[in-house]
Amino acid sequence: MSRRLVALLVALVMAAGGAVAATPDPVVVGWGKSPDVPQLAEAVDKNLWAAQNLAPQFVPFVTGRDAFEALIGGQLDLAIMAEFPAVVGAMRNAKFAVPAVLSAVTSIRVITKGPTGAQTLKELAGSKIGVPIGTNVHFLLAEALKQAGITAELVTVGPTDLLPSLLRGDIAAAMAFPSSYQGMKHALGAEYREIPLPGAAQFFILAASEKVATGNPDLIRRFLAALLEGETLVLKDPQEAQEADARYVGPAMSLDAIRASWPDYQFRIELDKPVLDLMVREGQWLHDAGFVKDGTASPELFSRYMLPGPLKSLAPDRVSLQ
């Protein structure tokens, strides 16, 4: 065989090897058309995955609980959701890991209807408050009522029925998910009233399957690297980030609604003590209320589910949990 032919064959083999290496790694992620993590919307909008050699496939779920069940069932590599399903999973000894908090809603409220609607939590003592029972907003409401030293009649109302129930007068107030606030405000118009719950918060976390957490943490690191780049874009140009968020969610939420809700959020990828503290309180409440009979809520329990390595390798200052 001539040297020229050998050189040609070597070149072809090297080219083929390069093509294989350049093939993006697939990653199946549970996350719907939600505006709560604009870092991800920017990553999708600007294809920030390419630099990390990733090809994410996003699978929408109606609730974070459904996404979590798919994650621990092996249908997903990663899932984005509120922290509450992970609390239930940890209490039940499910197999998964939490590599990061992606964002937080820091303006939680109870919604009432004017002109005579209650304007303080104490005014709701003894009233009917509609809430999706057994959810994180149920916990936040129960905690706020306890702190205020009052009791109310909590009525089981599904998320889509809260506004009609409030309009009909079936309930005096509604404890809705934060993504519903702007829609309810628009529907109620001049009669919209809200009662803020100081100190209440909801986190959106990244959860990883046991297979990925133990067998391929670098996949998590690269996914987070793309989101961190997306976060830089969010902070650099919030107006453009809002538009990217609107393009991502499509008709699910208008640009005006996204802009109006923007101040309610903190967009910072981290893994720190506030989320751990909240998970412990939620776990204790779940146990005391009889929603989960297994497990004992403690910092030690939930710390075992934290996976700080991937984020710490990218941004050590954002990790305060071991």
Quaternary state of the chains: single chain
The Rg value, from CA coordinates, equals 23 Å
Give a count of the beta strands, DSSP E runs of length 2 or more.
Answer: 11
Q: How would a textbook summarize the main sheet?
A: 6 strands, mixed
CATH class identity of the largest domain: Alpha Beta
Which descriptors apply to this entry?
D-Maltodextrin-Binding Protein, domain 2; 18% strand; 2 domains; 14 helices; five-stranded mixed β-sheet; single chain; alpha/beta; 322 residues; six-stranded mixed β-sheet; globular
Q: Describe it for me?
A:
With 322 residues, the chain is an alpha/beta fold. The chain folds into two domains: 198 residues, Periplasmic binding protein-like II (D-Maltodextrin-Binding Protein, domain 2, 3-Layer(aba) Sandwich), CATH 3.40.190.10; 88 residues, 3-Layer(aba) Sandwich (D-Maltodextrin-Binding Protein, domain 2), CATH 3.40.190. The chain is 45% helix and 18% strand. The chain contains 14 helices and eleven strands. Strands 2-1-3-10-4-11 form a six-stranded mixed β-sheet, with helices on both faces. It has a five-stranded mixed β-sheet with strand order 7-6-8-5-9, with helices on both faces. α5 links the parallel β6 and β7. α2 crosses α10. The protein is globular.
